Amino acid sequence: MADARATKSELLDVLSEVKTRVQDKLGIVDFPMPQFILIGSQSVGKSRLVESFAGEQFNFISGTLGSRRPTVLEFRNVASVVESKWYILDKETNQWQHRPTMQVMEIVGQAHSSLGNSVSTEAIHVRVESNKCVDMQIVDLPGYRGFARDEAGRNLCQQIESLNSSFLLDPRNVILCVEEAGDAANLSSLRRCSECDPDFKRTILIRNKLDKYYGDLTSDNSNKWLEGFGDLPK
């Protein structure tokens, strides 16, 4: 079992390196390889989902700023690691650099905040090695914004829509769509998914914060709430 797990991680590492090198040479984001992409409105709980994959709590972005570029997160399950190890990909050397966790948080936060009211297709890459995380890679995309009070904010909303759509339209991408539990008619991120994936063949809906909305949520009816009581697509 240990040998199989090691082989799986090594294969993921090779695929990751090939993908990163091709993206760096050709300047493209949508490399032709299946991947998980994570979408949802701002503050919907995407970060908590990512933390569950990582097996620990962290925070890249503070306050209400939100992300401004794709964040590629590579999780590697390493049974021998006692404490998690965090790495950041150096774009100049194309090498992974081991850094203290808080420093990785600061670097990623700066990569987003430095863009201000603009969006970039250039991703920032983070790797986590831990005995608690899963073996997978996801691309965390900027959260959708529902309101903008000025022209700069409206332009930012449009840029985020455009960036995320480029990932949604790629048939190779598996979509992890995070929505707060509530009236199915208000699932705006799922609506965007339906426009690009009308049969939901590659969309996984993740309903979040059930306890926030439903005072009568119990262990007996939680699955019915998740299923939307018939309102959601099968």
Automatic annotation (TrEMBL):
Organism domain of life: Eukaryota
GO cellular component, one term: cytoplasm
SMART domains referenced in this protein's UniProt entry, alphabetically: DYNc
Domain (Dynamin-type G): residue spans on this chain: 30-234
Annotated GO MF terms: GTP binding; GTPase activity; microtubule binding
SUPFAM superfamilies: P-loop containing nucleoside triphosphate hydrolases
Protein name, as recorded: Dynamin-type G domain-containing protein
Source species: Alexandrium andersonii
Lineage summary: Eukaryota, Sar, Alveolata, Dinophyceae, Gonyaulacales
